[in-house]
User: Fold this.
Amino acid sequence: MIRHDLTLAYELPPGWLSPWIDGLTKGKAVARKCAACGRVSFVPQRVCDCGSDKGTWVELSGRVKILRRTSGTEGEHCLAQFEGADIACVARLRNFAPGITHGHLVPSAKDVPMLILEPASDEGSN
Amino acid sequence: MVSVSGAALTPFCKSKDGSAFRDWAGSAFKQALAISTLDRCDIDMLVLASESDFFTLQLNPVSVIADDLGLAGCSTLRVEGGGASGQLAVHAGVRAILSGTARHVAVIGVDPSASQLSASAVKALYSFSFDAWSEGFAGVSATTLYALSVQGFMERLQLSKSHLAAVTIQNRENACANPNAHLGRRHTVQEIDDCTLIAAPYRRLHCSPLSDGAAAIILSKSGALPATRKTAPVILGIGASSDRVHLGARPEPDRFTAKSTAMKRACKSAGIEPKDIGFAEVYDAYAGAQLQAIEALGLSENIGQDLDAGEFGPTGRCPINLSGGLMGQGAPAGAIGVAQTANCALFLEGRNQSGLQPANPPRYALADTHGGICTIAAVTVLAQADAL
Assistant:
């Protein structure tokens, strides 16, 4: 056998997604609002479905509705829609008891963009 | 017109004989070339499908494969489109012939399962098949995304876990007749119900394996076929499409819309309709994904009813995955699409080694592949040589 150990440490520049990634690390939902049609995308889309690539960054409330959820050995994840966004996104769930339908974005690890949700304060946690 | 003058697959498995991806590519190519009755000096172009350099630890793999196969001097192309890599490579070969830049093209798909890496490392690498920045780094796996997609599909079509189990049972049963298959098994519903829950509703036995292996086809300009290969099947139509990379950005996350578009394009170029397809090799990365594909491809108007009636079984109206599919035959990522096309060609010509080789093969076959969560879709319509 040919043995080869390889350790890679990436530092990826966030580019145009910088406001979104910076927001995730702080627990802020920063979305892209299309300048042409007003559609709000979170995860941000560089080119809107209307075809425009002009837009502005807007901060959402961070509140989110869970549309679907799945759990198992791969962890707890969901398809969710942020308040004020026109599309859904996939996120990781933390401390979500069965039946909880709303949550909010929490800060991810420093410099690592992660969509992590915890239950909304008025729904409690397990 | 483009003909499949040769086709071959290595066994798909977890290789334990000390061989490597370069050996598998060479073996599949040699067998396919022998069927074509061409010589390696007849090959104008080599197209290689390989999904990830992390698994082979070989950047620019087509350069070493071309050298290993004695094809130095040919034009070369490496194609990568996730799970669709192999079918996109077939399309690239077809286009090269139709453009007049090549008469004979070798298309090879190969990938190792990278079983020497830790399971967590392989899972992390595959999660980068989606948007690494929004999903991969968050640990969102392929199984998670497919699970979230299939939930709505099952609700909409009123399908149950018994329908998912039926796919696993059929594909693994089909694989029992395939001497090259990785997972020929006879599962029970109870066994499936009891196995580990990966991401609801998907359990371990609803998932396809990662395999080692290679597949190769030789594409030839139909007018340049050797006299011995006039019965070679033809590629009648190809179609490809793509979708928004984020599942949540799609209007209907439970539908494989890119696949529907790819199928429409393939059928239009082939001059046929989905109902004309006699059998299909379908991308069954997960049990439910096969059912979502059947809907997107237009192969059934009532999937639950047709599944219950055995219409997709070996003796049904439209057999699906006679090879065993990804779930039974196995899934070396870059080889999948080439293997599907190779299997279709071999079945059409009556020379597939599977015990499920139809005595009277249908006129038309379909190879369906996708990458991501059906983010990139590629389908190919094949036909008997006399179908023109």
Q: What stands out?
A: Chain A has one domain: 15-119. The first strand of chain A starts at residue 30 and ends at 34. The two ends of chain A are 49 Å apart (CA to CA). Chain A has a mean pLDDT of 93.
